[in-house]
Amino acid sequence: MSASSETDEHGWDVDPEDESGAAVVAAVGRQLKAWREAAGMRAAEFGVLIGYGEDLIYKVEGGRRIPRPEYVDKADEALGANGKIAVMKQDLAVVRYPKKIRELAKMEAQAVELLAYGNSSFHGLLQTEEYARALFSMRQPAYSQEEVERGVVARVARQAVFERVPSPTFAFVQEEVALRRPLGGKMVLRRQLEHLLAMSDLRNVTIQVMPMDREEHAGIDGEIQVLKFKDGTAVGRSEGAFGGRPVSDPKRLRILELRCGMIRAQALTPGESKAFIEQVLGET
Predict the structure, then answer these.
(1) What is the C-alpha radius of gyration for the chain, rounded to an integer number of angstroms?
(2) Residue 37 CB: number of other CB atoms within 10 A?
């Protein structure tokens, strides 16, 4: 085993079903190999120079492994590329996330309005890093540690949408059970509730709570999300409607929007919800 064996697996696996992502990784790998060979270095020699094993060098250059940003930075410095290799991090930063997450993040980044109802856990855009890690860690069949971390990084990265200018409008409704179930432990939940309160203070974010004592509930079929875009189009998805598939047909979207509207009417008002979250936090 080589001296660098502990770092040989730094990076992320390439999803074989993600053709566009795999093409980007393969192109970056070919460029890295070309730079190394132009410098007259063997893979093993190059690996020692940048602190990684020979096996990882071959995987990256062969497009079978997505290198971490620090790998690319070290390669740029070692090969005297003056930033020409480091700039590849921009392409790799996108494809390191699972394809489904990239597509979702892209739609969220383009939306001008988001309506979301969540039940058993907090919406991904509202989750703290440690809460997200707890959720990924309890998935079954169990995720590998790499899959957990990759999922967490991707979920947190989606939250950059809150920093967009102009700001989109967000309306979330969360079930009371999510506020009380200590997924990841009580301290994880406490910090999640504190984060929720901080998010509710943003002018473009509305957070409501659906209390458990409601006798009528329009969201009984499961989670709903609707994204609206500036050109007037929209896309929505509900666990309990249309086979759980995304829909963009106006008639089907109206059904989802109707349900979202009824859920918001049945939930606590934003002001009542904030007071309720503060109460639960005090009890946690």
Answers:
(1) 23
(2) 13
- What digits encode the pLDDT tens for the residues 98-127? 676 677 778 898 999 999 999 999 999 999
**The one-letter amino acid at 41:** M
Question: Residue 69, preceding bond cis, omega within 30 degrees?
Answer: no
**Strand, coil or helix: what is 205?**
strand
Q: Residue 122 in contact with residue 179, Cβ under 8 Å? A: no
Phi, psi of 235 (to 5 degrees): -140, 140
Report how far residue 188's alpha carbon sits from residue 112's, in angstroms, rounded to the nearest whole number: 31
As a whole number of angstroms, the distance between CA 5 and CA 26 comes to 23
Q: For the residues of 249-282, what is the DSSP string, one character each?
A: -HHHHHHHHHHHHHHHHHSPPHHHHHHHHHHHHH
CA atoms within 13 A on the CB side of 86: 11
pLDDT in tens, 166-216: 889 999 999 999 999 999 999 999 999 999 999 999 999 999 999 999 999
At 10, give phi and psi (nearest 5°): -60, 130
Beta bridge partners, 41, equal none
Please, are residues 221 and 241 in contact by the beta-carbon 8 Å criterion?
yes
Q: Is the pLDDT of residue 163 over 50?
A: yes
CA 44 – CA 284 distance, rounded (Å) = 54
Spell out the alpha helix ranges (H) of the chain: 19-38, 43-50, 54-61, 69-78, 89-95, 99-110, 129-137, 145-158, 176-180, 186-200, 250-266, 270-283
**pTM for this model (two decimals):** 0.72
| Residue 210 vs residues 129, 205, 217, 261: alpha-carbon distances, Å | 24, 16, 9, 13
The per-residue pLDDT for range 222-232, each reduced to its tens digit, is 999 999 999 99
